[in-house]
Design goal:
Structural class: alpha+beta
Order of helices and strands: HHEEHEEEEHHEHEEEE
CATH architecture of the domain at 5-162 and 192-216: Roll
CATH topology of the domain at 5-162 and 192-216: Thiol Ester Dehydrase, Chain A
Strand content: 25-35%
Number of strands: 11
Mean pLDDT: 91
Shape: globular
Helix content: 10-25%
CATH superfamily of the domain at 5-162 and 192-216: Hotdog Thioesterase
Distance between the termini: 37 Å
Largest sheet: 11 strands, antiparallel
Number of helices: 6
Length: about 290
């Protein structure tokens, strides 16, 4: 029997108590099918808690899948305590539906420089079992954790791993995540994940429901915030065909806001520039999106 959305949230809260992954990543319920240096294969099922209003995988969740896949094949070559900061990420979408079981196969291209601060490059292809959904590339910087923060290896869970029982002794942070989930479930608008993450508006509240282990907004969700804002700026008959983001600073603070401007609009194609800024007005990520008229 498919799990309810609330059960998925409770399982992710419980899984988040194991070091190495964060709540947003656990909510995806990724399966690490293969993790080897330079070659990583991840997959996820597009369940209701991850779907957009049309039943396809939400763009923020897709960006997270791409992010984890690209970083995974690089992280397999690093020390367990090191972290990877996203420098840039580019995703080219096809017309294939983001439905069913999506499988991502990534491959490492190599590193620039050596030691702390070296930048790794990787590519990934995501398919739905029949067609290619997207191809993507990314660059990541290897860093030591911030002072006073201990990071652990990401657990390589598999799809058929034993279920994790829901928790009852919530911390304040866990209660806040569940409160947000219950609030999103009570909202009649379609797409739980867009309501829960706050992607239906140009301003998103920051917090543990969208953050990583360091406390910054997860990079894939930031890219999803920009993509959703660009789609609202150019809705149907326009179709998002690609997005590329450059990460300029960590996603910190109470809120993160997206502001779009049209760079080009022709008869068949358009290009938009979106800046996502923190509460102090500092740009966190700059994103370019391309759109095709159906």
């Amino acid at each position: 029997m498919p799990r309810s959305i609330r059960e998925q949230v409770l399982r992710a809260i419980a899984a988040n108590r194991e070091p190495g992954f964060h709540f947003a990543g656990n909510l995806l319920d990724l399966s690490f099918d293969k993790v080897e240096p330079g070659d990583t294969r991840l997959s996820l099922d597009v369940a209701p808690h991850l779907a957009d209003a049309g039943g396809q995988l939400n763009l923020g969740a897709l960006a997270m899948l791409v992010d984890f896949s690209l970083a995974g094949c690089l992280r397999a070559t690093l020390e367990p305590h090191q972290r990877l900061a996203t420098v840039s990420m580019s995703i080219e979408l096809t017309a294939a539906p983001r439905t069913g079981r999506l499988a991502a196969a990534s491959r490492m291209a190599g590193f620039i420089r050596e030691g702390k601060g070296r930048v790794g490059k990787a590519s990934v292809e995501v398919g739905n079992g029949t067609d290619v959904v997207c191809v993507a590339t990314g660059a990541f910087m290897a860093l030591d954790p911030p002072s006073g923060v201990t990071l652990y290896p990401v657990p390589h869970r598999r799809r058929n791993s034993p279920p994790i029982a829901p928790v009852s002794d919530f911390t304040a942070e866990e209660r806040e995540i569940l409160r947000r989930a219950d609030e999103a479930l009570a909202d009649p608008q379609p797409s739980f994940i867009e309501r829960f993450w706050g992607l239906r508006a140009d301003t998103m509240e920051n917090g543990p429901h969208v953050g990583n282990r360091v406390g910054h907004a997860q990079g894939g969700i930031l890219l999803g915030l920009a993509a959703c804002a660009a789609i609202r700026k150019r809705p149907a008959p326009w179709h998002l065909s690609g997005l590329a983001g450059w990460y300029l600073r960590p996603g910190e603070g109470s809120t993160l806001a997206a502001e779009c401007s049209v760079v080009h609009e022709g008869r068949l194609t358009a290009a938009l520039r979106t800046l996502v800024s923190d509460a102090k007005g500092r740009t966190v990520i700059e994103v370019m999106t391309t759109h095709a008229r159906r």
